[in-house]
Amino acid sequence: MGAELLVPAQAEGDDVVLAWEGEDVLAGPLPLRAASQEHHPPARERRHGMPLADLDRKAKQEVVRILEARGAFSVRHGVETVAGALGVSRFTVYNYLNRETALNREKATKGE
Fold first, then answer.
1. Which pLDDT belongs to residue 39?
2. Domain boundaries, the chain
3. The model scores a pTM over 0.70
4. How does pLDDT run across 51-68, given as a tens digit for each residue?
5. ∠ CA(16), CA(75), CA(36), 5° rounding?
6. 69 and 40 in contact (C-beta within 8 Å)?
């Protein structure tokens, strides 16, 4: 699923630490599934310390970038769920996604 496994000490806010026989052995993000997707925007809210709808445009773009990297938009109704959490339209989320794609394309062209 493209997840990067980490040592437990490197786990961040919404990563999950797995234990074996009472000892933490590895960490990483949970795969995003339709049933668990609704829990991802609240995790982003906890990280930002405020409702996602209250974030400025740049912060909302960053949230979309992070959720896209975690596969939030590869499941059914992903865009609608994220748009609702951010307090923006689906069109705006698609604009943020297109912006990110264009930036990545530009970086690749420049050899960054």
1. 43
2. 1-31, 32-110
3. no
4. 778 889 998 998 888 888
5. 35
6. no
